[in-house]
Design goal:
The complex is a heterodimer of chains A (337) and B (135). In chain A, 48% of the residues lie in helices and 13% in strands. Chain A has 337 residues and is α/β, with parallel strands linked by helices. Chain A has a 7-stranded parallel beta sheet, sandwiched between helices. In chain A, α1 crosses α2 and α2 runs antiparallel to α5. A 5-stranded parallel beta sheet of chain B has the order 2-1-3-4-5, with helices on both faces. The termini of chain B are close together. In chain B, α2 packs across α3. Chain B has 135 residues and is α/β, with parallel strands linked by helices. Chain B is built from 5 helices and 5 strands. The chains are: A alpha/beta (337), B alpha/beta (135). Chains A and B meet through α2, β3 and β4 of A and α1, β2 and α2 of B. Bound molecules: cobalamin, guanosine-5'-diphosphate (GDP) and magnesium ion. Magnesium ion (MG) binds next to α4 of chain A.
Chain lengths: 337, 135
């Protein structure tokens, strides 16, 4: 192994052995997608898959960070080690980010059984950073029982977390979701558990009842008669539990933790095997796509590509023909303009 | 990704409720392209040091207007050193009399910024004094 490789392996081993500084530095390497991170992740991967990865998503202000803090409190009572990855958006213009989720969790800042890490999305859409899954893998390897992943919370399109997390919690606040929104909701479709937070506010129970009615109606327990074998593989909407919490007081949070544990246990019994496979698939394809993109950019960089792009800009060449030219250059053929 | 953002922790040590400056600074630094972690109010030196460690920040910025800087700031720098974070740039701002600055520098606070400091000044200082990130 190279000298850098040895350093990466040492960092990974130290992180697993409980060295928090090493863990933090490894997470930085992961965020920056360095060579160290790749060596370390490959070393750590076989020892992962033990933590329960829980995604927490929902609109800004719904109470995600407050609920994460309440879940930490509850899990700590049971002596479980908890890690958090909290993602906030990066400015597309300056690249800067204000990472403020931690403010609500600082009561646990000095608890040895808790590790909280803020992450900027760094241009990645879908509510997570491109490296959030890898960060969760590292925390899994470091021995945390529960890894909570808080998304940016930009809205209905934020379904990516469901591909990373074993259990996805979608947070709503009372009357934040009118019926129309729930029906078109991409987010609710990926929920394993729906939580109506701010249970201390009027309308919380009513919102929960509406959601229950709607989610039951949309979930079809079996394929339509006569649909044939094909329909059996067709992804059907889940039928999530709907719970009410008051994150700011902790009310309803023990029941939520119990529901998380139940969902996890059901997954262990094999029900979630398809989800695990989907997660593996997403992870591998992500890497493949990234490598291909890099290779294409490297191979295709140069004056020939520039003149191809110029031709498209001037409407002398259509974008499909240009794409075919760039693809040919990736396959090894000489690009012709 | 070649140029990664500098990561900064803005923390409010002690029972000081003045958070306007810290928030102005946090937002301003975000707009300057920094990744800024904000702790919120009433942080003990232990909380600040552990947060800096977990977040692996390049800079710790302590905002304090309560007058307790001579006891709190040296505690933060000592804890940072004890946790092996001696390469982190530690800075402070708020209401800190000039007479106290030499002792704070002695304790490991690299620079102190008072009222009227512009975000551009702070950003420029951070960019030139932060440790070089390793490959
Ligand atoms: C607004 C204000 C308040 C507001 C605070 C609102 C809030 N949420 O922030 C209120 C009314 C609540 C308040 C209350 C009190 N206040 Co008051 N308050 C002020 C005042 C007038 C302005 C502070 C301010 O917001 N400035 C604007 C911001 C943008 O500036 P800044 O904080 O200085 O930050 C700038 C720089 O210092 C620097 N900076 C700041 N932090 C950092 C950190 C880093 C890393 C860097 C690089 C730079 C940096 O960059 C910023 C941008 O330029 C000051 C007087 C003054 N002129 O400063 C008194 C002052 C700070 N308050 C004072 C006092 C005594 C109090 C009270 C104790 C009064 C009382 N007896 O009740 C209470 C305490 C409240 C508490 N819980 O702590 C005293 C403190 C005396 C001291 N330290 O010796 C001051 C100095 C007034 C005085 N001359 O006596 N206060
Ligand atoms: N009344 C009430 N307020 C809450 C509750 N949970 C969170 N909040 C408040 O809602 C606001 C947003 O909370 P936060 O956790 O930051 O939401 P996030 O943006 O989804 O992470 C804060 O002011 C919280 O104090 C709750 O259960 N009841
Ligand atoms: Mg939040």
């Amino acid at each position: 192994m190279s000298e850098a490789g040895v350093r990466a392996a040492e960092l990974a081993d130290a992180a697993v052995a409980g060295d928090r500084r090493a863990l933090a530095r490894l997470l930085t390497a992961v965020e920056n997608r360095t060579a160290t991170a790749e060596v370390a992740l490959r070393r750590l991967y076989p020892g992962t898959g033990r933590a329960h990865l829980v995604g927490i998503t929902g609109a800004p202000g719904a109470g995600k960070s407050t609920l994460v803090a309440a879940l930490i409190a509850e899990a700590r009572l049971a002596g479980r080690a908890v890690a958090v990855v909290a993602v906030d958006p990066s400015s597309p213009i300056t690249g800067g980010a204000l990472l403020g989720d931690r403010v609500r969790m600082q009561a646990y800042a000095s608890d040895d059984g808790v590790f909280i890490r803020s992450m900027a999305s760094r241009g990645h859409a879908g509510g997570l950073a491109a490296t959030s899954t890898a960060a969760a893998t590292v925390l899994d390897a470091a021995g945390f029982d529960l890894v909570l992943l808080e998304t940016v919370g930009t809205g209905q399109s934020e379904v990516e977390v469901a591909r990373t997390a074993a259990t996805t919690v979608v947070l709503e606040a009372p009357d934040m979701c009118d019926e129309v929104q729930a029906i078109k909701a991409g987010l609710l479709e990926v929920a394993d558990i729906v939580v109506v937070n701010k249970g201390d506010r009027p309308g919380a129970q009513r919102t929960a009842a509406q959601l229950r009615a709607m989610l039951t109606a949309s979930a079809s327990p079996r394929p339509a008669p006569g649909a044939g074998g094909e329909a059996a593989d067709h992804p059907r909407p889940k039928r999530p539990d709907v719970l009410v919490t008051t994150a700011s007081t902790g009310e309803g949070v023990p029941a939520l933790l119990a529901a998380l544990d139940r969902h996890r246990a059901a997954g262990r019994d094999g029900l979630a095997d398809a989800a695990r496979l989907a997660r593996a698939e997403a992870q591998v394809w992500e890497i493949v796509a990234e490598r291909l993109r890099d290779r294409l950019h490297r191979t295709a960089a140069g004056p020939t590509t520039e003149s191809t792009l110029r031709a498209v800009a001037d409407h002398r060449l259509d974008p499909y023909a240009a794409a075919a030219l760039l693809l040919a250059s990736l396959a090894g053929g000489p690009p012709r303009a | 990704m070649s140029e990664r953002p500098i990561k900064v922790l803005i923390a409010k040590p002690g029972l000081d409720g003045h958070d306007r400056g810290a928030k102005v600074l946090a937002r301003g630094l975000r707009d300057e392209g920094f990744e800024v972690v904000y702790t919120g109010l009433r942080q003990t030196p232990e909380m600040i040091a552990t947060t800096a460690l977990q977040e692996d920040v390049d800079v710790v910025g302590l905002s304090i207007l309560s007058g307790a800087h001579m006891t709190l700031l040296p505690r933060v720098t000592r804890l940072l050193r004890e946790r092996g974070l001696d390469d982190v740039l530690v800075t402070a701002g708020g209401i800190i009399p000039d007479d106290d600055i030499p002792a704070l520098r002695e304790a490991g606070v690299a620079a102190v910024f008072g009222p009227g400091t512009t975000i551009a000044e702070v950003a420029a200082y951070f960019r030139t004094h932060v440790r070089q990130p390793e490959g």
